[in-house]
Amino acid sequence: MKKNFLIALSLVMILLVGIHSGTTACTNFLITKGASADGSTMITYSADSHVLYGDLYFWPAADYPEGAMLDIVEWDTGKPMGKIPQIRHTFSVVGNMNENQVAIGETTYGGREELASQSGAIMDYGSLIYVTLQRATSARDAIRIIAEFMDTYGYASSGESFSISDKNEVWIMEIIGKGEGQKGAVWVALLVPDGYICGHANQARITTFPYQKTNSWDNTNTTCYNAPDVITFARGKGWYSGSDSDFSFSDTYAPVGFGGARFCEARVYAMFNRVNPDMAPYEDYARGEVEHGANGYATNRMPLWVKPDHKVTVKEVMDLMRDHYENTSMDMNNDFGAGPFQSPYRWRPMTWEVDSVGYCHERATSTQQTGFVFVAQSRNWLPDPIGGIFWFSVDDTYTNCYAPMYCGMLKVPEPYAVGNGDMLTYSPTSAFWTFTFVSNWAYTKYNYMIKDIQKVQTRLENFFINATPGVDKEALALYDENPMAAREYLTDYSVAMGNYTVDTWRELGQYLLVKYHDGNVKKEKNGEFERNEWGVPVMPDQPGYPEWWLKKTADDHGDNVKVIGSAH
Q: What's the CA gap between 421 and 293, in Å, rounded?
């Protein structure tokens, strides 16, 4: 491994290339039909931000008069950006999935700082996602709409990776603006080969690609779309001088360094490593040991996609979003930072310095600052309103629970609805604050409480998954007679399951509060807290600290904590 002074130098370089907390948020995994157990496509997205409140967005389908305009508001800040013409009919959208089973997720990678701002641009990355979902009929259609938006209205964000799926295909699209003086963005979109899985986590990942001078939007055999000037723009900036075939989008517009590998690519590595036995050679890269060739391009990068050693189920995909680098050298459960109760969480900042040497905490897929997370599942053997299931939850992926929200639903459960609390306003009925209570309480005695949480998590998610075929069957029977009746049925089911999930989690939080009150562990008998024969609570267990922690405390404090008169 690299020596500490090289790591310290790399941490300095992180600052120089603009890697910061705002660009190490969010994780996406992409699953093609041939890689899933049931033939569905799936994309995941954890929207991670210290200021993002977890709620479930909803836009009903709507019709607009000719000449209507749409207000564009920046997703991150709420800042008004401008107006664009509205179309005559928009599709309904639940979270990040529309009624046509099209879903979009994202991660921010930042990239070259000189391209991060574009005066007069209207469309930020959030607007691209949510306005496109209201208009797109397929993943290819979404890519075309996004490209047209950026060409017409400019691009008002830094570098972004998008996951875009429909009931048949999964695409990865990477975008970066042209900076001041030019409108729009340069970008590449690649079809993930069937049978493979892909991922991205705040580091651009597309390298070489089959450059297209003209995009053939109507050709369903096309596997690559790109901005026509994606290479010539870089040449004009003096960033590239080789052949078109050797051009790497990521290495040119967002070169990977220590931070991009250790804080970002490592999350993709962890997911790949859990489903593919051949990933071990890439662990050094994931740890931040990036090798570069004569042209400056990284030479030891992971592949963009891999083939899993088995076809994954929706439950496995949910669990892939639950990771702290377990079973790797970066496992967060077992080092001193995990504390006496093996908590795989580290409070920010992520980097620090001791005696002029730089160090870092890991940035895992499961993290405390998640606003919301989803697994968008699209199934081509069912009508669209039934085929799309938006498995949704809020807060930390390791301690939450996914509830099924069918893409044809007509409203969302009140606990998840926009306006039920916010990041600065507690609401006792909100899903976000209910889940946040459980996760934050669990952090205090993690290796005890996580077992209780996982029992409920597994029970509920398996219940929802096992119920799905029956719900599909009932909805399909209604759909054949009356499509709107089917959507109303799916709405009632989704709302009921959302409410049930939050109610169950609220009860779980109350149970954990009582059981682990004041660091004790209450005794249980026959499924209830134990009382003596007269109804008085029995003395709780007081398990204290593990032996290694007590020894470390004694070594650190010496005579200050020694019992006077004890043996030497």
A: 51
Tell me what the mean pLDDT of segment 231-244 comes to. Answer: 97
Checking phi first, is residue 387 left (phi over 0); if not, alpha (psi -120 to 50) or beta?
A: alpha
> Is the pLDDT score of 22 beyond 80?
no
E strand map for 27-153: 28-31, 41-48, 58-59, 62-63, 69-73, 80-85, 89-90, 93-94, 97-98, 103-110
CA-CA distance, 530 to 524, in Å (whole number)? 5
In Å, how far are 83, 151, 200, 305 from 275, measured between CA atoms?
A: 45, 39, 16, 12
Q: How high is the mean pLDDT of the chain?
A: 94
Q: Which residues pair with 72 in a beta bridge?
A: 82
Structure tokens that stand for 456 in this block: 């409920």
Q: What is the pLDDT of residue 220?
A: 93
Report DSSP letters for 257-319, one per residue.
-HHIIIIIIHHHHHHHHHH-TT-GGGHHHHTT---B-TTS-BSSPPPSEE--SSPBPHHHHHH
Q: Give 177: exposed, middle or buried? Use CB within 10 Å, 0-12, 13-18, 19+.
A: buried
Q: In the block, which residue shows the tokens 């089917």?
A: 486
Query: Residues 90-109, buried b or exposed e (16+ Cβ, 10 A)?
Result: bbbbbbbbbbbbbbbbbbbb
Residues 240 and 487: their CA atoms lie apart, in Å, by 52
Distance CA 161, CA 498 (A): 29
Please determine, for residue 14, whether its predicted confidence score (pLDDT) is greater than 80: no
Q: Is 398 left (phi over 0), alpha (psi -120 to 50) or beta?
A: alpha
Show the beta-strand stretches assigned E in 345-476: 351-354, 357-360, 370-378, 389-394, 403-406
State the pLDDT at residue 548: 94
Query: What are the pLDDT digits (tens) for 76-124?
Result: 999 999 999 999 999 999 999 999 999 999 999 999 999 999 999 999 9
**Which three-class secondary structure state does DSSP give residue 457?**
helix
Residue found under tokens 């219940």:
463
pTM check: above 0.85: yes
